Amino acid sequence: MSDIYPPEFRVDPDLPTADLFAVTSVNGKVGMGVKAKVRFQRGRLVAKFTGQLSNQILQHTLQVSPQAHLHDPWFVGLLTHSCAPNCVLDMQRLEIWALADIEPGELLTIDYAVTEDTLHRQFACGCGSSACRKWITGRREPVNEMGRAYLDGLAARKVKRMETRQAKRSATR
Ligand SMILES: [Zn+2]
């Protein structure tokens, strides 16, 4: 029996349980996250999820169809974003699948860009993956003004670093 969701949502016996997952705060910055307590193999079902249907985009919603969003502030809505995630969601079957081997203590991560056409809020990403897009938007929205300023700032710092490196190289020559 799931003990992560409130009682009124515990209809499916395959909903997540606290012996397999820990809902936990993640280094203050990211907010809440979900950690695996056991090992999940790549390609396997990790958990099912549920929630309340809503026509609004909220902080913890995931899009089910163009107009419908699933509000789940208990479990799947708390998953951490990564540009190289270890999980993917099946929004038709409401299932989480492992894209990589997940070890106990590891955070479950998904790519937020594939969860909503328009995100509740675009944000800067420092997930550390080599595929990091640095600024995360929904799958059908342009980078907003804040994002453009942020990305321009990153690009300017990168140019500066390259110039410094080049200057050092010509100095040692
Ligand atoms: Zn990233």
Can you give a write-up of this model?
With 173 residues, the chain is an alpha+beta fold. It has a domain at 7-114: SET domain (Beta-clip-like). It is 16% helix and 24% strand. The protein contains one helix and twelve strands; from the N terminus they run ββββββββββββα. The chain has one helix at residues 145-172, and strands spanning 21-26, 31-36, 45-48, 52-54, 61-63, 69-71, 80-81, 87-90, 95-98, 109-110, 123-124, 135-136. The strands form five sheets. A three-stranded antiparallel sheet has the order 3-9-8, with no helix packed on it. It has a three-stranded antiparallel sheet with strand order 4-6-5, with no helix packed on it. A hairpin with a 5-residue loop joins strand 5 and strand 6. The chain is globular and about 70 Å long. Zinc ion binds next to loops.
Topology diagram in text:
Layout: E1 21-26, E2 31-36, E3 45-48, E4 52-54, E5 61-63, E6 69-71, E7 80-81, E8 87-90, E9 95-98, E10 109-110, E11 123-124, E12 135-136, H1 145-172
Parallel strand pairs: 7-10
Antiparallel strand pairs: 1-2, 3-9, 4-6, 5-6, 8-9, 11-12
Bound molecules: zinc ion.
